[in-house]
Design goal:
Distance between the termini: 74 Å
CATH topology of the largest domain: Alpha-Beta Plaits
Order of helices and strands: HEHEHH
Strand order of the largest sheet: 1-2
Strand content: 5-15%
Number of helices: 4
Shape: elongated
Helix content: 40-55%
Radius of gyration: 26 Å
Number of strands: 2
CATH architecture of the largest domain: 2-Layer Sandwich
Number of domains: 2
Structural class: mainly alpha
Length: 138
């Protein structure tokens, strides 16, 4: 489901403010596929202009099928909606920023460990060559 499709489905119930859909990381990591990538989302956040509409929509649609049309690719999929009280859009951006920082830190740690291993291997290689030369001279 894309942002446009989501807005089309939920837009008939009330005015939508912002929408954010989070990419599925496992699909992004798959390399070597020549075919066109279909974006898949694991979860999303929708901001409605009216608090009443958001609460009512979460109560009514949760657990119901997205659509009843048999030709639609969403006919067998159920809505999984939850109203988040006191949730601000800033909380979402803070969470995403934190997750990016954690990812960068983990990546830096892995890079530094790989460099240490490469340096250790290189130094030991140099030492073994020196020892071979010394043994060859004797």
């Amino acid at each position: 489901m894309t942002v446009a499709i989501l807005k089309e489905f939920l837009g008939e119930f009330g005015k939508i403010g912002r929408v954010y859909l989070q990419n599925n990381k496992s699909d992004d990591d798959e390399a070597g596929k020549k075919r066109r990538k279909m974006r898949r989302y694991t979860e999303g956040w929708v901001e409605f202009e009216s608090k009443k509409v958001a609460k009512l929509l979460a109560l009514r649609l949760n657990g119901k099928p997205i659509t009843t049309r048999k030709g639609s690719k969403f006919c067998d999929i159920l809505w999984n909606l939850k109203y988040l009280s006191r949730f601000k859009w800033v909380h979402l951006s803070e969470r995403l920023t934190y997750e990016k920082a954690v990812y960068r830190q983990r990546l830096q740690t892995e890079i530094s460990l790989a460099r240490k291993e490469a340096n250790f291997y290189g130094e030991n290689l140099d030492r073994s060559e020196k020892l071979r030369k010394r043994n060859a001279k004797k």
